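Quick one - first record:
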Amino acid sequence: MCHNRRATKPNMAAINKTEDPKKLSQNQQDWLRLEMLFSQVVTQGTTSEKLRRIALNISTEFVAIEEDLNELCTQSCTQCSEICCMRATVWYDLKDLLFIYLNTGMFPSSQISRDINGACSQLASSGCTVHRAARPFICTWYICASQKEHIKSHRAAPSLRSVEQIIKRIQSRRKELQDIFLSMTSS
């Protein structure tokens, strides 16, 4: 006898906290439920293939800007007295998590946190310990005033415009990832 199983949508309970993803860092159980939800959703047929194609495209864009941004950070952050990573609070948002999961097949082990001195827990003496594409996106798109000044003084403005254009494309594609994901999980 054949049973007709109705396809069920993934449970949205874990994603309700994405309005404030920092809350996820307080509850490892919610973090694990969110990972399970991602796993369920990205195995759903043709839409999951579309998600994977978008993530691959984003990954290609990251490769295109990684060297320029790493060089900029090496040249400017080492001379900065107010390094963003020492004072800013960053976290993975839903779009970060979607991209990372689709790009690597893995989910971050936990939310980004701060160390006892208030610095990002991923900051080391040599810079960030997280590969650029696996960082919260704000760590890529935010170019501080000191960095902009460094770019102007080194006549790298055309390079910056190119990086800014790529960042805008990544932002657009990340939104598309989130919109598709949320449409797959809505009732």
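second record:
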Amino acid sequence: MPTSLAAVRVRQVRRVTVDTVNLASIEPASGAATTVLIPVTEHGDMEPRFGRAPRVAVATVVDGIVTTWREYAVGWDAAHDAGTPGSHHARIVRFLNDHRVDTIVAEHMGVGMRRVVDRMGIRLLTVPGGAARQAVSLALASAEAARKSPH
């Protein structure tokens, strides 16, 4: 006996719902995704102190558009002077690895942390500050323009 059209539609809706949940974590195929970390203030501006930032944002950027933005209270300001510089760097490295960061946008970063980030293969883009979301877009656009321009 043939299945009714209503039954087929119900099965399709269920399938779409399951597929949507499973596909939610997959990046769009339109372009390469970049995972950017930026130190931020509670008001959405850039925090000027990378290693002493109380908060950071991790953004996913695809084709120059910020597609996700998540903020974390990391407490690096309080943890900075607790223990050795190496232990603080290790704390930051764990965060970078856990969130698969490939680019950092910052106003300032100390020499030791710059060395660590460089060894990790993470791109560091420095910008003068301002609104954090705009700084991410501007830094990535500037880096892309510099990459494309003949020197």
